[in-house]
Write a structure and sequence with these properties.
The chain has 193 residues and is of the alpha+beta class. Helices cover 35% and strands 32% of the residues. The protein folds into two domains: 108 residues, Sandwich (Immunoglobulin-like), CATH 2.60.40.10; 68 residues. The protein contains two helices and twelve strands; from the N terminus they run E-E-E-E-E-E-E-E-E-E-H-E-E-H. Strands 4, 5, 7, 10 and 11 form a five-stranded antiparallel beta sheet that branches. Strands 1-3-8-6 form a four-stranded antiparallel beta sheet, with no helix packed on it. The longest helix is centred in the C-terminal third of the chain and has 64 residues. The relative contact order is 0.14.
Length: 193
């Protein structure tokens, strides 16, 4: 039997990760470290693809990398890498090949990608000055509160003393007035007798 056979020539892109360069040779765990990823399309068709980065075999915590490349175009893509633990690590970035194209993966991209130099991540250090500053701020707040409270209490006490002095003065005037009224009544009674 004869089987029909037909050849089709389709232009395909070829995405290569040229370099992965970190902005520094050391970083702090759980803090972002800037990384520049250089990507090229050396194929015969334009492409839009995602780039995935890995720490060893695990997916790295980076910002999303999506790139559009024309034929023979190279782009530098900035990203941020967060290492979740201390130690020496390298970042490897590769172009993502959709599952339906796995049989063509070697025709579309380099499977090895590119790897950064080793980056030494350390845990964040707590500075000894931080507690002193915190305690100092709390102390200033307490002292300010105490001064304000004392001044208000003194003002209230002063107002209370003034009010009681006025009352005493008013009471004395009333007492004197009552005594004068009584004296006048007594003298009026004596005059009428």
């Amino acid at each position: 039997p004869t089987t029909p056979y037909h050849e089709v020539s389709i232009d395909l892109p070829f995405v290569s990760i040229d370099s992965v360069v970190a902005e520094d040779t050391s970083g702090t765990a759980n803090k972002g470290l800037g990384v520049m990823v250089t990507v090229s399309n050396t194929g015969d068709a334009p492409v839009k693809t995602n780039i995935r980065c890995y720490e060893g075999d695990d997916l790295a915590d980076t910002t999303t990398l999506l790139v559009s490349l024309d034929v023979d175009e190279t782009k530098k893509i900035p990203t941020t890498w967060w290492a979740n633990a201390s130690g020496s690590k390298a970042l490897t970035c590769k172009a993502l090949v959709p599952t339906g194209f796995n049989s063509l993966a070697s025709t579309l991209t380099s499977s090895s990608g590119a790897t950064s130099s080793e980056i030494s991540f350390k845990d964040a250090e707590e500075t000894e000055d931080a507690p002193i500053i915190l305690y100092g701020a709390i102390l200033v707040f307490i002292l300010t509160g105490t001064v304000v409270f004392t001044k208000r209490s003194a003002a209230n006490l002063s107002n209370t003393e003034d009010d009681s002095e006025e009352k005493l003065y008013d009471d004395e005037i009333l007492d004197e007035s009552d005594e004068q009224d009584d004296a006048e009544e007594d003298s009026n009674e004596e005059d009428s007798i």
